[in-house]
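Minutes, project check-in
Item: structure for the 115-residue chain
Input as provided by the requester:
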Amino acid sequence: MRELRVIGADLGVKVLMPSGVKGTRWLPHVLKALETFLKPGQFTAVYYHMDHLAGFSANADIAGRATKVKNSMEDATFVAYCQQTCSVALVNLASYFRGMRSSYHRQFAAFKNCW
């Protein structure tokens, strides 16, 4: 991660580290990670970091994964997929919270009727 921060400093970008995408709240985590990744300068910093790892990593496994990520990032459909996933996640998250709010109101109304 140190190399990523150095690359960000060279590009004049404060590199943001997204939270993990695993866990029980996976949709908000994926959304936060995608929003962070798609911010101006972040994509470029990650790309150069992957390029650095692909070329200079002593571990063949890390170099291979970095090469795969770098090649994926060079494909325009990858960026379009990230943006589309971010949009879908926002819509689903908003829908989820609308459902939670109406459920809360129903529970509150039922509780209020008990008095």
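Outcome recorded: Confidence is low (pLDDT under 50) at residues 110-115.
No further action items on this chain.
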